[in-house]
Specification:
By secondary structure, the protein is of the alpha+beta class. The chain is built from 12 helices and 26 strands. A hairpin with a 2-residue loop joins strand 10 and strand 11. The longest helix has 20 residues. Keywords: Cytoplasm, Nucleus, Protein transport, Transport. It holds the Pfam family NMD3. It comes from Trema orientale.
Length: 506
């Protein structure tokens, strides 16, 4: 503003003084010394550690934080840098400004960290100086790794996960949940059993944490027991082995259930014929005739446990002949009531049997579509809960979901654009029949993932490098064919580097 008013302004200049030791011009400071002379007079890193010995476990790649804590950290990671800085003594005498790794050959067992510190010296002048600290690794296995090396089968806690059903669809889903959240990272061994999976841990707390995780993702009930292994009467020390038995509810998604009268009354006279639409830590039930739905938590289920009337392995394929929406304005939970005429696919060319039924899939089905459902017309059920309802008229069929089997025939045998990871499990040698059954169940699980976006919400999908899209196939596939969008795979891309430095996508 002074220049705009035409006033005379004196140019401000920064004065300079001569260094009291070497005499070179410099900006004035409290010590009247240049930086080079000041560093020659004062060493602020004097008394600070420059050589430190750290204990490293080569098996689990962890470092000892005295007295007994082991910290897992990768080379040149933030966790390892924090660990190294905390191991330095007398660092509180200076102010730490910056810290970074200096690359050293990994097999040299040396870690070099460059630190930049500041300290007030000589009449209030602040001096900044850098120095290098060398950390020497001494190899020493931690207690858990020593126990495993001495006896690989030695475990402290075992979690026996079981579900008494004839398929493994639930365990395929739980496996992906465990992988995404790293719930079994502390397991020393995982073994696949006939009706479940066994997890072995070297610490009881790891087993307890794993049981709590399973209870948050599935309706379970558990009990635990312990067995005395050894006892030292002099020091009064006891060693136990702990076993946790976890049972998952036999109710699975898409199962048809006949609710017991007491349960139906407690849920507001729901059903009694209902379909299980989703299983998390609670069971979601849907009445396909009224669109009423409710949730049954684990405590409510195990208080009056019941089994499924029909399971997904008994689904029958139908052809939809006609569909008429009952009330277009009524849409509960994404479902729409409709009256449909269907015929079994196996009856075509043999008879003219047509069923008139009511379904909750009015928003999905169109004439000519295929659907999977339960054939109550030809099923001879001896369920005890069903016999308690006297005068109950069963429908001829109950549709569960739309079928894309006919359109998927063209893509059979071709690799998918995505893939899943699997746990490192020990699997006993099975016969050819059991292996084929396992493969077909896993293929059905992959199809369910493609058809149901809700199932993919808690699962990590990875891009398949072997997949090569074909223009001819993309032109012949149906537009409504279920598929997984690329965005869901990009969120879980795993980028790693090989030994030769090339980056690959898994």
């Amino acid at each position: 503003m002074a220049q705009e008013a035409g006033m005379f302004m004196v140019n401000q200049t920064v004065g300079s003084v001569l260094c009291c030791k070497c005499g070179i011009p410099m900006a004035p400071n409290a010590a009247n010394m240049c930086v080079r002379c000041l560093r020659s007079e004062v060493d602020i890193t004097e008394g600070l550690q420059k050589h430190v010995i750290i204990i490293h476990c080569p098996e689990c790649d962890s470092y000892l934080q005295p007295p007994r804590t082991w910290i897992k950290a990768q080379l040149e990671s933030k966790e390892l840098l924090t660990f190294c800085v905390k191991r330095l003594k007398n660092l509180n005498k200076v102010r730490l400004v910056h810290a970074e790794f200096i690359w050293t050959e990994p097999h040299s067992k040396r870690i070099k960290v460059k630190l930049k510190v500041q300290k007030e010296v000589l009449n209030g002048a602040v001096l900044e100086q850098s120095y290098v600290v060398e950390f020497v690794q001494q190899e020493h296995m931690c207690e858990s790794c020593m126990r495993v090396q001495a006896n690989p089968d030695q475990w402290v806690a075992a979690v026996q996960l079981r579900q008494h059903v004839s398929h493994r669809r639930t365990f395929f889903y739980l496996e992906q949940m465990i992988l995404k959240h790293g719930a079994a990272a502390a397991a020393i061994k995982i073994k696949q059993m006939d009706q479940g999976i066994d997890f072995f841990f070297s610490n009881r707390s790891h087993g307890v944490k794993f049981v709590e995780f399973i209870g948050k993702v599935a309706p379970v009930r558990s009990r635990h027991d312990k067995q005395l292994v050894s006892h030292d009467p002099k020091s009064n020390n006891y060693n136990y082995k702990y076993t946790f038995s976890v049972e998952i509810s036999p109710i699975c998604r898409e199962d048809l259930i006949c609710l017991p009268p007491k349960v139906a009354v407690s849920l507001g006279n729901l059903g009694p014929l209902v379909i299980c639409t989703k299983v998390t830590n609670s069971i979601a039930l849907l009445d396909p005739f009224t669109l009423r739905h409710c949730f049954l938590d684990a405590d409510q289920y195990w208080r009056v446990s019941f089994k499924s009337l029909l399971t997904s392995r008994q689904l029958v394929e139908y052809i939809v002949l006609d569909v008429e929406i009952v009330k277009p304005e009524v849409n509960v939970g994404g479902y729409t009531l409709a009256d449909a005429q269907v015929a079994r696919l196996s009856d075509f060319g043999k008879n003219d049997t047509i069923f008139s039924i009511r379904t909750h899939l009015g928003h999905l089905l169109n004439p000519g579509d295929h659907a999977l459902g339960y054939d109550l017309y030809a099923t001879n059920s001896n369920d005890m809960e069903l016999e308690k309802y006297k005068g109950l008229v069963l429908p001829d069929a109950i549709l569960v979901k739309k079928s894309y089997e006919e359109k998927l025939q063209r893509k059979r045998g071709k690799p998918r654009s995505w893939k899943l990871k699997s746990l490192n499990m020990e699997v006993d040698d099975k016969g050819k029949g059991e292996q084929e059954k396992m493969n077909s169940e896993y293929e059905q699980f992959l199809k369910d993932l493609e058809e149901n976006p809700d199932m993919r919400f808690n699962i990590s999908l990875y891009r398949n490098k072997e997949y090569q899209p074909s223009e001819v196939a993309s032109m012949t596939d149906g537009e409504d064919l279920p598929s997984i969008p690329l965005e869901e795979m990009l969120a879980d891309l795993d980028i790693s580097e090989d030994e030769d430095g090339d980056s690959n996508m898994v």
